[in-house]
Amino acid sequence: MKKTIYIFSSGTLQRKDNSLILINKNGKSYIPIEVVDDIYVFGEITLNSKLLNFLSQKNILVHFYNYYGYYSGTYIPKENKISGNILVKQVEHYLNHEKRLYIAKKIIEAASFNIFRNLRYYNSRKENIETYINEINYLRNKISEQKDISQLMGIEGNIREVYYSSWDNIVDFSFEKRTKRPPENIVNTLISFINSIIYTTTISEIYKTYLNPSISYLHEPGERRFSLSLDISEIFKPLIGDRLIFLLLNKKIITEKDFEKDLNGLYLKDKARKKILEMYDERLKKTIMHKTLHKKVSYRYLIRLECYKLIKHLLEEKSYEGFTLWW
């Protein structure tokens, strides 16, 4: 089974026959290329074009993060799955106002329903959650009424604001409000880090399909980002990201000792990142019995299935409905 490789130490990454070799102060580590799905680099790594050519041949993406754990960018091999027909359909559904709005609404409907399911789960375990559930249901009922993307994004923002306001009743840390650049407290730092990991996981899954990652429907396509990954990530943040954060904080797996602060804000120590990524990997491997496929699929594969559903919609084979939690 293929797996994600995380590199934290500084050193050199090279190719040796059909393996990757990480050379650092501790010696050499050999990684058979057959087991590699994608690579995350958190340390200062030196590599060369020979290695990049090798990774391209094997269709392996490399995601880079800086010293503070902020996402820097992704090395993507040349497209190995190309369909002019699907590309034309993607653009067509972006340029057509009604077609774009339909997909964007379905994304928000799914994402907000998954938020609602999270709150409903904690409503029986925590106090003062019911008010937030009612507010989110009120806002969710307005999604279908929105006439353009900016209005829809406004509703999405309001839902997120209410949702995050409820977190003080779910986790044992004060949240106050969502801040990003830089994150101002422990909860915000965890959200930023884990959301960025979900974003890059989604990039990797989109790459395995015929979709173009830069053509999106909810978020505006732009330079220096894969906006379709932002779209699809919204659906899976409540399931993969938020539930992981609740677990990390409420079980005290991550505490104040796992953070450092400087002029760039609050950031996670390497040991804490490793711990989080280990649990994140386990979460992606977790399986559920799929209602339609009638077989067990992993959380990671659910993301790719979302891409396949979008392709079927673009080809007018089946109308798109976003993934929603049923457990």
UniProtKB/TrEMBL annotation:
<feature type="binding site">
    <location>
        <position position="219"/>
    </location>
    <ligand>
        <name>Mn(2+)</name>
    </ligand>
</feature>
<comment type="function">
    <text>CRISPR (clustered regularly interspaced short palindromic repeat), is an adaptive immune system that provides protection against mobile genetic elements (viruses, transposable elements and conjugative plasmids). CRISPR clusters contain spacers, sequences complementary to antecedent mobile elements, and target invading nucleic acids. CRISPR clusters are transcribed and processed into CRISPR RNA (crRNA). Acts as a dsDNA endonuclease. Involved in the integration of spacer DNA into the CRISPR cassette.</text>
</comment>
<keyword id="KW-0378">Hydrolase</keyword>
<keyword id="KW-0238">DNA-binding</keyword>
<dbReference type="GO" id="GO:0004519">
    <property type="term" value="F:endonuclease activity"/>
</dbReference>
<keyword id="KW-0051">Antiviral defense</keyword>
<comment type="subunit">
    <text>Homodimer, forms a heterotetramer with a Cas2 homodimer.</text>
</comment>
<keyword id="KW-0464">Manganese</keyword>
<dbReference type="InterPro" id="IPR042211">
    <property type="entry name" value="CRISPR-assoc_Cas1_N"/>
</dbReference>
<comment type="similarity">
    <text>Belongs to the CRISPR-associated endonuclease Cas1 family.</text>
</comment>
<dbReference type="InterPro" id="IPR042206">
    <property type="entry name" value="CRISPR-assoc_Cas1_C"/>
</dbReference>
<dbReference type="InterPro" id="IPR002729">
    <property type="entry name" value="CRISPR-assoc_Cas1"/>
</dbReference>
<feature type="binding site">
    <location>
        <position position="234"/>
    </location>
    <ligand>
        <name>Mn(2+)</name>
    </ligand>
</feature>
<feature type="binding site">
    <location>
        <position position="156"/>
    </location>
    <ligand>
        <name>Mn(2+)</name>
    </ligand>
</feature>
<dbReference type="InterPro" id="IPR019858">
    <property type="entry name" value="CRISPR-assoc_Cas1_HMARI/TNEAP"/>
</dbReference>
<keyword id="KW-0460">Magnesium</keyword>
<keyword id="KW-0540">Nuclease</keyword>
<keyword id="KW-0255">Endonuclease</keyword>
<dbReference type="Pfam" id="PF01867">
    <property type="entry name" value="Cas_Cas1"/>
</dbReference>
<protein>
    <recommendedName>
        <fullName>CRISPR-associated endonuclease Cas1</fullName>
        <ecNumber>3.1.-.-</ecNumber>
    </recommendedName>
</protein>
<keyword id="KW-0479">Metal-binding</keyword>
